[in-house]
Amino acid sequence: MTLQKRRVTNLLLLALPVFLFFNLSFVTALWWWYRGLPPENTINAHISLFTIMHLSWLVIFYLFQLLDLRTYRGWQWIYRLVWAMGLSMIVGAFIFYLQPNLLVTPRRMLAVHVVLSSGLTLLWGAAATWAMGKRRPLHILFMGVDTVATERFSELANQQRFSIRCTHVSSSHQAPLDEFAARKPDILCLSSTLPEGYEHLIEEARKERVPIYTYTDLYEEFLRRIAVGELHSWSRPNSSPFMHLHLIIKRLTDITIGLLLGLVVLVTAPIIVPLIKLSSEGPIFFLQRRVTLDGKPFTIYKYRTMRTDTDSSTWTQKKDPRVTRIGGLLRRSHLDEIPQAWNLIKGDLSLVGPRPEQVVIVEELKKRIPFYAHRHHIRSGLTGWAQLQGYAGTVRGSQDKLEFDLYYLKHQSLLFDLEIILKTLRSLAGLSGR
């Protein structure tokens, strides 16, 4: 089974049963409340409403990482489940009262439904935790791959909480076929340049239906990033009619989100502006030159969060003394970013894309990091695949982020954008700003 199929299978293993439990709880609550089957029109009204509700609950479960098998390697998921079901109850009540003419009643049935759903998902989570405890790690056999590269892959995979076991065999090994038969890996990773005699190994792996990857392909598909250190060249992915449609939809989405954020600015400005003025002397807005599509510089707009008597042209550090007390609050809540609504409307930024860096920093990184300029083949974004991985305040951190930016550039799609937006919402809920 390929890694992509494993990823989809693992998601379905959790999403489908959970959705089934939601519907089973609904049917049970309906039967219990009406002491049998209600009239057909009542059933139809309930089905339409609860289907919308259950789909929204699946999104909530995704945001709380309850549709990720890695979450069930311990019992911390119970804490997530409590919060997820609490939020689901609130969303369910909201949907209930939005229905026209309040056709679906009584509201107390929602509470019964939530309790039943919580019980079933709790049992399912316990079963998943037990199964994950019994599940053996995925065994990846690296043959002919550099030892340092193997160790880096293993380290990065463990950082992402993957349960794997990496075994390394050098390319000088005289009996690769015997090693393969003895170790029985789940995945075989080979160097792109192998010595003679490995043809029989590849044939045997295909016969045993063991997926075969080169190191760069495994790194990309498993870790969802590009191994920049292994790259010899990079070209912009070919355009297609689907990509043109994607860009049109993306631009319309950017304008829509920009207008909505503009409304948020208007509503919150009477509170935020006085707080900024009281925190320190200086302007309300922070303007800075950043770099976007095709290396074009533009002016980014933010609420000012730093004192004006400091240098703001360097990377922000953790617990940066330049940040004011109100500025820290704005950064943690990400409210300092909302004036970028104007950048979205103008087309300087997209909702999803690489982080726009300062002009002076970009010029420095282009000299020190290979292929760095290629991240500007796409419009910079408010959020992005690399931005979800944390903040980079060093050259090394920027190189790591470039691997995610290039992955997004290669695999960009509406579904990928939706995944990034959902994960951004999850990150925002944690108030994890700098």
UniProtKB/TrEMBL annotation:
The molecular function terms in GO held by this entry are: phosphotransferase activity, for other substituted phosphate groups
Q: Which UniProt keywords apply?
A: Membrane, Transferase, Transmembrane, Transmembrane helix
InterPro entries, alphabetically?
Bact_transf, EPS_sugar_tfrase
Residues crossing the lipid bilayer are 12-34, 46-65, 77-98, 110-133, 255-276
Q: Where in the cell is it found?
A: Membrane
User: Is tRNA-binding set as a keyword in this record?
Assistant: no
Q: What's the protein's topology in the membrane?
A: Multi-pass membrane protein
Query: Per its UniProt record, what Pfam families does this chain match?
Result: Bac_transf (PF02397)
- Main subcellular localization, coarse class? membrane
List residues of the Bacterial sugar transferase domain. Answer: 250-427
Source organism's superkingdom? Bacteria
Q: Which GO terms describe its cellular component?
A: membrane
PANTHER family reported for this sequence: COLANIC BIOSYNTHESIS UDP-GLUCOSE LIPID CARRIER TRANSFERASE, UNDECAPRENYL-PHOSPHATE N-ACETYLGALACTOSAMINYL 1-PHOSPHATE TRANSFERASE-RELATED
The similarity comment for this entry is:
Belongs to the bacterial sugar transferase family.
What is this protein's record name?
A: Bacterial sugar transferase domain-containing protein
Source organism? Candidatus Uhrbacteria bacterium CG_4_9_14_3_um_filter_50_9
